Amino acid sequence: MDSKISQIINNLFAVNATVHLTRPNPAFGDYATNVALELSGQLGVNPRVVAEKIAVELQKTGDFSMVEVAGPGFINLRVTAKSLEDSLQSVWSDNFGSSQDGAGKTAVVEYPSPNMAKPYSVGHLRPGNQGWAVKKLLEATGWRVISDNHLGDYGAPFGIWVTGFLRFSSEAALEKDGVYELGRVYIQTKKVLKEEKERGETELADEVQSWLIKLENGDQQAVDYSARFNKISLDHIHNVMARLKISTDYEMGEAFFAPRGKEAVQKLLDSKIAIKNNDNSIIVPLDDYGFDVPLLVQKSNGAALYATTDLATILYREDNWHPDKVIYCVGAEQQFYFSQLFAMAKKLGIKTELYHLWFGTIDQKNDDGTREKMSSRKGVVLMEALLDQAEARARQLTGDRDVSDDDIKKIALGAIKFSDFAADRRTNILFDWDSIFALSGFSGPYIQYAAVRVNKILQDNQNIESSLSDYDYEAEKAIIVRLLEYPDVVKLAARDLEPHKVAGFLYELARDLNRYYETTRINESEANQKWARVEVLKKVSFVIEDGLRLLGIEVPTRM
Ligand code: ARG
Fold first, then answer.
1. What whole-number distance in Å separates Cα of residue 190 and Cα of residue 203?
2. What are phi and psi of 325, to 5 degrees?
3. Domain architecture of the chain: domains with CATH
4. Number of C-alpha atoms within 13 angstroms, CB side, residue 559?
5. pTM (two decimals)
6. According to DSSP H, which parts of 292-362 are helical?
7. Distances (CA, A) of 237 to 118, 152, 330
8. Atom 8, ligand 1: residue with shortest CA distance
9. Residue nearest to atom 10 of ligand 1 (CA)
């Protein structure tokens, strides 16, 4: 539609204009454009006159049931459903207008980056969901994406694990509870360490330290423990990621970068960006970037810090992947840290766009109606427990219908993931079992159900004969207008790294569909209408499936 108008403008005034169509209040038309206002300065002609001229030509095309010049020179348009369907056909055959904004560019997307010592908790749910969706959106718009799981696998845990295991656990308990036992031991040992410190003693702390030294010296027993605990932890992380249906190309954690930290810090010292304090600790002052706190990059005992491994990571990625953009999918709590880290990178001359893709917390409603960060009585909510519960809910939802385990898992994940995209990612989301499974509201299952229903109609009408006719598509108009928005929705969601825009679109589309079924009985349509309608529904099915795929959600076969 917009290219048709550009063509008319070119014929009339011999200028190239980009036409932006907006969606006005439906009372005024299907689309509107202010292109005449934009052109009038350039042409030196009154905007209303420009608009009138364009309007006359638009009338002649026969594509519009109404062309109206309003106000100082807006053009309001009502398009015939038939011509909209023509546009839909051409968008459809053009790969659904897929944008190639990212062609030739590389992005590194980092998610979900959990920490080794603990069982996977809901704390790393949003990083995974948002990261995966962003990866899919970028790929859909032509970017090359390298995904990396920046595991928190460096530092104290090992010594705490071994000491705690020997004192407070057993082979049998480890055998039985795996990572959950390691997590329990870790928490208990930390607590005892704290108590010991308060008493001014160091026995346990010394033992922790001695295991770390043993590991460093390659002591066989220490190496064996380390390998074993790491494997238990990593297998668990992989299991949970598989259940969440997310994966990454690389898995380079803090431990991989820690040994490179020294060199990175040296680089900072050499370029006079960092300062060595009297106690041998090293800091990077960032007052020229508006931070009154410097960034600590090396402790006085020489140990690497979070910022040190991150600096080494940045340098590694620059050297090996040459990205145009690096996206860190990490919660809002680390905003200050990342802004410091990025400032330090700038000082070092890194030109790559480093972007902290942050998001709010997952909250829950307490019995008294107040809201707080999701937790269980024991502390964190475990991801596996949440998934089990979601699957039980999905079973409940499908009742005694014959729904496969595979479909149940898709519904459970659909509910959990879609809720992540309920609003702009920066807002805290409220996790509420009833609403994330509501078949009549903004929920994953609501969208999935819309897709299942369309697919059923398509299946029932697989063999209908094509019947080209002069069908007017009036009944399908709202759906067609909506489908035509899809390419732009994806393009903007990818540009702004805002997957919730896709979710919002899918919700509107599902609502359009439900309104459509209220007035139109596909199976009772006349033959020629039916074929045309089924053709539109094929595109609906494609778009819902594609949109959900971008959010990491699959469409079940039945539900
Ligand atoms: N493991 C960290 C955490 O759970 C997140 C890592 C984020 N990525 C990074 N490059 N610092 O808090």
1. 13
2. -155, 140
3. 2-79 (3.30.1360.70), 150-246 (no CATH)
4. 31
5. 0.94
6. 306-321, 335-347
7. 10, 11, 17
8. 150
9. 310
